[in-house]
Amino acid sequence: MKDGINRREFLGKSAGVAAGLAAVNALTARRIQAADAPVRVGVIGTGNRGRSLMGTMLGMPGVLFPAVCDINPDAAAAASAIVEKAGLPKPEVYVGDALHYRDLIARDDLDAIIIATYWQWHAPMAVDAMKAGKYTGVEVPAALTFDECRQLVDTHEQTKVPCMMLENWSFRRDNLAVLNMIRQGLLGEMVHCHCAHSHDCIDHWFFDTQGNIRWGGEFLLKRNCDQYPTHSLGPVLSWLDINCGDAFDYCTSAATDSRGINAYFRRKFGPDHPNAQREYKQGDIVTSLVRTKKGKTIVINYDMQLPRPYDNRWTVQGTLGLYNEQRDAVYIEGRSPKYHEWESFPPYQAEFDHAWWKAMEAEANAAGHGGTDYLELSLFLKAVREKGPTPIDVYDSVTMSSLIPLSEASIAQGSAPVPCHDYTRGQWATRKPAFAVA
């Protein structure tokens, strides 16, 4: 056999290389073009949260807001004003009728829709946006019922349009560093998580400072469930490879009686205040236990009606050690310097800092929610530009949201186990992890 190759082989290989280079150059050109292309965003729901998201996106290059929508004319006008103040063209404003948002969605000059309305509108609006071919970013929770969860998945699979729930706690710097530690094997095989949304919301979310019930408070009258599980579950799904190697199997939940709301109104406004005497369906504390198909457990706490500082109480535990957010500490067998003693987490966060944060640290730290809003929105808009998958997909969005009806059903049945629906239709067993994979 001769060393080297003959002329015909050389020309063939050269042609292949040239074709490959041409393909690479074309792909690079498309990516450069995509990176420079403006993303045209329509915003539905321009109250405090909607305007906060807009303010974060206005700090990013190449984002336009052709249209905004809200049932409150003052909120819509305020959103329009911040766009103009940023030096961008004034958006068209849709106000009034509750279904007027459909006219915004139907526009042909929008690439994406951001939904930051009352909870009960999230799923219907997201379904309409996907049907209109618009990338959809929907605030938490993405759905309130089993039927809404199924509608979101069915619509995505029919239209192939991505839908991402904007669960910003999935993007926290500490949570992503923990995810890196897990994927590099420091904690061993995952076994258990605890998580919570512990946030006293009585005087600003459920009611205003004068004691008037707000839209969020209406849910306390009607349902007894974990009303707000996604901030708890956001990082847990990726820590435990839920929907990509494992899946929720069944859920059991228990709720305390409702005491905190009445007690708050008696203290603040006196025993004769109507809200001090009102009956609330929602228990003060809801504790849910989810067991996965692969035998892991997750404890999720709802705690939003009693006096307390904010806390998420994340713990993730494996066969080699654990991370505890409350202590800001870890213990790792064979690595921690002292036997069965906690060590500080910040050095681990620095060592296992995620590439997303390394790339966007300066910009993210200047934005809201500790930079998580900037990170999640910039990655959502990158997906829109490149017409690629969003970092959180529709399956994870509905899985997190599904704890609302799961917990409600279990509580109503005396804490009976309730089967968890598999929204991936069996694909969880073969799907590979995608969230935050470098």
What can you see in these coordinates?
The protein is an alpha/beta fold and 438 residues long. The chain has a domain at 169-357 and 393-429: Dihydrodipicolinate Reductase, domain 2. It is 41% helix and 18% strand. The chain has 17 helices and 15 strands. It has helices at 7-36, 48-58, 73-85, 101-105, 122-131, 146-159, 173-183, 202-206, 215-222, 230-239, 260-269, 274-277, 346-351, 355-365, 372-386, 394-401, 403-412, and strands at residues 39-44, 63-70, 92-95, 112-115, 135-138, 163-165, 190-198, 248-255, 285-292, 297-303, 315-318, 321-324, 329-332, 343-344, 418-419. The protein has a nine-stranded mixed sheet with strand order 14-13-12-11-7-10-9-8-15. The chain has a six-stranded parallel sheet with strand order 3-2-1-4-5-6, with helices on both faces. Helix 2 packs parallel to helix 3 and helix 5 runs parallel beside helix 6. The protein is globular. The chain starts with 6 loop residues before the first helix and ends in a 19-residue tail after the last strand. The model is unreliable at 1-34 (pLDDT under 50).
